[in-house]
Amino acid sequence: MPSSLRTLLPGLVPCLLVAVIAVAVNLAVPALSPLLLAIVLGAVLTNIVSIPDSWGEGVQFSSKKLLRVGIVLLGLQLAVGDILSLGWRVIVGVVLVVTLSLVGTLAMARLLGISRPLSILIACGFSICGAAAVAGVEDIADADEEEVATAIALVVLFGTLMIPLAPLAAHAMGMGEVAGGTWIGASIHEVAQVVAAGGAYGAAALSVAVIVKLTRVVLLAPVAVALSFAERSRGTLREGAKRPPIVPLFVVGFLVMIGIGSLHIIPAGALSGLKLLQTGLLAAAMFALGLGVKVKGLMRVGGRPVILGALSTVWIALLALAMVVLSGTMGA
Questions:
Q1: What is the 3-state secondary structure (H, E, C) of 257-320?
Q2: Would you say 314 and 104 are in contact if contact means Cβ atoms under 8 Å apart?
Q3: Residue 201 CB partners (closer than 8 Å, separation 6+)
Q4: Structure pTM?
Q5: pLDDT by residue for the chain (332 residues), tens digit each?
Q6: Which of 194, 124, 209 is closest to 159 using CA atoms?
Q7: Which of 30, 194, 283, 310 would bridge 22 by S-S if both were Cys, CB 3.0 to 4.6 A apart?
């Protein structure tokens, strides 16, 4: 056995094992998100037992390499036609929501005195696609492990709170299923959290919510490119850190997969298999990321990131509400 594989296996095997368990549980109980389950299992495990040092390389491999492959395969779930079916008002609205939520969150983070790397991670995680966005831009932001763990913990905390609150709020505002699904998809952080909240509001709401959310996911590509340019031009990387690539390779792969998915050339059976593989890879990555969410570390960070998470969640929800009203879907 090659030495590199020997060092990977101790940490890689538990990540893959948890992924298999999480996917199996989801197949048996569809309401339970495998990604959310994997993150929670990782966070619980790392806070009740001591994780062996031998897991280090395998866990890092899962949280970086497997995650990026999973994000690339996620592109197959979204065809260009699905986005266009939303109508130009909603599409423009989603772009504005993501842009303004990013800018607003970064501005609030600056006022709170939060470090730029952590600010970028929280802004991207809350505005685009949760933990996957956090991990997708961590190298660009030049963030350390504690900052990544903090951002992921906040995504899990506030996104999970939105699962029951968003449908209740949408109902209280008199939104129909289309409007409610649009608002849920535009405001909640994780894809899995959107699925849970959208499903609770109705079948039509779930369909719209997922398309709106995946439209936000597509924006990870231009945001990552823009951040790369911005960070390269700032020249503020830590000593010895690599300059971020202008266009991250996983972003290119993600866009290529969207193009392939839009052609509808992959047989339905193969597409289902690839979706299962993508879910498994992301679940393995989420477990690995969850292992970095340590309560002691979060307490050390202090309350300001939590305040930022709360403010950012409210800000995005208000922006999404304005988008629903202005796009004319409020009564739908």
A1: HHHHHHHCCCCHHHHHHHHHHHHHHHHHHHHHHHCCCCHHHHHHHCCHHHHHHHHHHHHHHHHH
A2: no
A3: 167, 170, 171, 177, 180, 181, 184, 209
A4: 0.74
A5: 455 778 899 999 999 999 999 999 989 988 777 877 888 899 899 899 999 989 989 998 998 788 888 878 878 877 788 778 888 888 899 999 999 999 999 999 999 999 999 999 999 999 998 877 887 788 888 888 888 888 988 887 888 788 889 989 999 998 988 899 999 999 998 877 787 788 778 878 877 888 888 888 888 888 888 888 887 776 655 555 555 555 667 778 878 888 898 888 889 889 999 989 988 998 898 898 788 777 777 777 678 999 999 999 999 999 999 999 988 776 65
A6: 194
A7: 283
The letter for the amino acid at 27 is L
Query: Which tokens in the block code for residue 296?
Result: 């002691």
Per-residue tokens: 134: 């956090």
